[in-house]
Amino acid sequence: MDFYDDVKQTAEMAGEKIGQFADIAKIKVKVLDIQSKLKALYEKLGKAVYFGNEDDLSAIVEEIDAKRGQIIDLENRLDELKNKKVCGDCGKSNVKDATYCNYCGSRL
Q1: What sign has the CA pseudo-torsion 93, 73, 33, 53?
Q2: Residue-wise DSSP of 13-80
Q3: For a tag on the chain, would you pick the N or C end, based on fewer CB atoms within 10 A?
Q4: Residue ranges per structural domain of the chain
Q5: Taking a C-beta distance cutoff of 8 angstroms, is the pair 66, 72 a contact?
């Protein structure tokens, strides 16, 4: 029975990994979608500045801030799925059990 238990356990672990990879792929697609919308908002902001539409500026900037916040949230979720920890000083991803940031040396 040990052999079959090992096979079952291995299959369950593989299923979890596949699910994790699927979640990572979905999040990456969402980030790309938001980035394309963000690019369009930057263009809209540039046109508003160029043509002097000051009434539109604050609404566009709020939309940009919201999209950037969504990207940050999704990237944090990606770091969780990849078992990474983000440095509070430089924002770089580090392995979860790191005590110090590999990029800036700050304590995590």
Answers
A1: negative
A2: HHHHHHHHHHHHHHHHHHHHHHHHHHHHHHHHHHHHHHTT-HHHHHHHHHHHHHHHHHHHHHHHHHHH
A3: N
A4: 2-95
A5: no
Which two tokens mark 48?
């508003």
Return all residues near 86 (Cβ < 8 A) that are at least 6 apart.
76, 79, 92, 93, 94
> Rounded to whole angstroms, how far apart are CA atoms 82 and 104?
21
Q: Is the pLDDT of residue 1 over 80?
A: no
pLDDT class of 25 with cuts at 50, 70, 90: very high
pTM for the model stands at: 0.77
- Per the CB < 8 A criterion, the answer to whether 63 and 44 are in contact is no
